## 1
Amino acid sequence: MNILVINCGSSSLKFQLIDSDTEKCIAKGLCERIGIDGSMITYAPEGGEKEVTTTPMPDHTEAIRLVLEALTNEKTGVVKSLDEIGAVGHRVVHGGENFAASTVINDEVMKAIEECNDLAPLHNPANLIGINACKELMPNTPMVAVFDTAFHQTMPEEAYMYGLPYEYYQKYKIRRYGFHGTSHSFVSKKAAEDLGKNYEDLKIIVCHLGNGASISAVKNGKCVDTSMGLTPLEGLIMGTRSGDIDPAIIEFIAHKEGKNIDEIMTILNKKSGVLGLSDNLSSDFRDLEAGHNEGNANATRTLKTYCYRVAKYIGSYVAAMNGVDVICFTAGVGENAALVRTMVCEYLGYLGVAIDQEANHKRSEDIVISTPDSKTTVMVIPTNEELAIARETVRLV
Ligand code: AMP
């Protein structure tokens, strides 16, 4: 069955058509600047030429109409008609406490997703717009919602509660939710599969280090803790997000710089992280690695602080699970930055971690980068959130 995977943002939309039998991507692409002048669609059929077309997209319905037209185009399309698309899988960012698993979309589910809008005001409304646009154009095709938060719903209360007045949890559901769940679930399962071990018998730490970054502790097949919280701002230092800070810093900057809460949130989300810490050198780890190798002190300080935070979180999850069998690195930085993996693993001597540097520098699919006598196995596993969404969609339809 062909599954269309949709990841809809406020002004952009990523898509992939995946053949669920072979698990191969048949075509993928991106609509950008939806509702803004200069909208464009990039379409890349597998093994074919990538096309970029600038064309008006006043709304998401038009964007999805163009995606479906590209997929069924006589010359460059990959299916003859929309009948060849068996189901649509939608990435939905926040499922709150309503969703501990993916679900087939119906009116009740749409309402429950809308109830989570307050928790993810930038993402959930856009996800809903994408679902509505698909429903309009493909009214008879089953749709599935796959939530970023669902995998983390198994966290125990002591891991998800904040030390805040309890009434805020009761009134507003203020608690830790965690994100990147599809990736943490996919990578932890893949680690067990690659090692030929039972998922339910392992203690796994997944370091999803991308532009956004989070770590999770997966014990006996269930997530028991993760570093992102109510929003994706908590936890690790990220590309441009601060991660954990003393909350009193917000008031301090507000007074010193004469800024309001919205301006400070923009600083914490867009101007902090490795970008801010490197004094605006870059949010991209390729630049930071290059800078560090050239002796740039901003780059070195940033990499050291970033890796120290990752190592501290790993330590806390070893404590939460009373041990660890496998540590996995994934996403843009985790998959590509050998230096970051080395610097993080240098803190892990107490876990008996020993890294095989030849393996660590190899570019390949899933790979074990620890030595055979390392007490803890360390792996690099490329994440594939689209495939995970497609699998969930097939399972439910
Ligand atoms: P993601 O959000 O998972 O797509 O990750 C994107 C980030 O991965 C980029 O901002 C870079 O910092 C990082 N990245 C991508 N390729 C490399 C590379 N070859 N070496 C180091 N970092 C990389």
Note: The two ends are 10 Å apart (CA to CA).
## 2
Amino acid sequence: MATPIKHYLQFSDLTAGEYAWLFERAAAIKKKFKAYEKYHPLADRTLAMIFEKASTRTRVSFEAGMYQLGGSVVHLTTGDSQLGRAEPIEDSAKVISRMVDLVMIRTFGQDKIARFAEHSRVPVINGLTNEFHPCQILADIFTYIEHRGSIQGKVVAWVGDGNNMANTWLQAAELLGFTVHLSTPSGYEVDQAIAGIRSTDSYKVFKDPMDACRGADLVTTDVWTSMGYEAENEARKKAFADWCVDTDMMRVAKPDALFMHCLPAHRGEEVEADVIDGPQSVVWDEAENRMHAQKALMEYLLLGKVAG
Ligand code: CP
Ligand code: NVA
């Protein structure tokens, strides 16, 4: 019997054991990259990347990463493909997945990527949906481990919107055994059902973002308005005014706390320049690690646990 296809549609699609493997592989693959060592396990494999929303990091990290692994990429957007002319998602999935080995999709609703995966012959990776951003949290935790070791038992403070990033942090906390301190403005809370987590054990809710940051090992935030929610921009600017990560918040966190932001960032909105450009910020490592972590992910989805 053929092995079932492994998709990566949300963080909970992999086990803690699989993450341990991916973090190890990401470190090994990064080391090869830094040493200019050729590593082409995905020679002759093709990745299709479908973008229905804008991107810098996701596009560059997947595209550069796939070439570095010896493969090639096809880049599609809503505007330059039949996806924008309402070809059914199921038909697109059937066609695209007959021609490539792997598909990465950035889109709106999670239901869309789930439907695509259901009709795909090849693994599908979530490159961001309204609900989740698993590749980002994969890279963020890899970055945390590089700087501070295991994230197990640690406290991650989330300051801001109860969005795709917050949902994914919650899934990761439940799976990998750490706690998220959540502080969101009223009306922008995380919905546990949408986040897809089983219990409230791995997170605590705080009205005041200062309290969420107290004693945290990692402080992180994201834009006030995510892609797809632009019509709410003005209302969000008012609601989120006190949810700006500043040096006072970093001061009440642990002295060796890190600051992360998935980027793009808006200095003076969700984060002060002194924090994102300050000594505790690891945002550039975080961005670079998207590529190394996703190379490990692509290798794993296509080849399983390989040595080398
Ligand atoms: N963090 C992130 O996913 O960035 P892009 O939107 O630039 O891909
Ligand atoms: N929450 C943001 C992340 C961007 C990488 C968004 O969805 O727009």
Note: The mean pLDDT is 97.
